[in-house]
Amino acid sequence: xxxxxxxxxxxxxxxxxxxxxxxxxxxxxxxxxxxxxxxxxxxxxxxxxxxxxxxxxxxxxxxxxxxxxxxxxxxxxxxxxxxxxxxxxxxxxxxxxxxxxxxxxxxxxxxxxxxxxxxxxxxxxxxxxxxxxxxxxxxxxxxxxxxxxxxxxxxxxxxxxxxxxxxxxxxxxxxxxxxxxxxxxxxxxxxxxxxxxxxxxxxxxxxxx
Length: 209
Hints:
Strand content: 25-35%
Helix content: 10-25%
Oligomer: single chain
Strand order of the largest sheet: 1-2-6-10-9-8-7
Number of strands: 10
Radius of gyration: 16 Å
Number of helices: 3
Shape: globular
Distance between the termini: 12 Å
């Protein structure tokens, strides 16, 4: 059953994007059928990442912020300090999870976290992520290799949102973004990580849809 597999939690703090990406790939390549799953929490210094199907036209004036082409799904997004990054390194085949099921678990974890603060957030069909008042709060992009997931979710907590104006976030021109601070949530990154983990583990332990 999905709920019988161990989940190791790691907190890396602020970590450059390229080394984190390399560590995700190395972990996924080296794991075997018995390797415990891991969930990584971290933040990245300012960086734009462009997914496998990303189009250069969605990049505008990116200034001095580096742009990295990566192997996840999705278009372009921005990462920076004050944004919670969640990387689920899961053997989804072993957990009997489909890719869309994992996407929904990640999205629902954020939606349930917002509900803790009496706020109503939504997902959108064919536009992965979490939205509130038509503004994007969390972005999502995964890669599956050998039946295992890496990359993941970014949740805007308390950050400088201005770099999002340099791109079409997730490939959508004019899409506004928001963050927990702007919604009146002034909780620490540690608190938000703990709340997210509580919801994620509960949803992950449900039987696969």
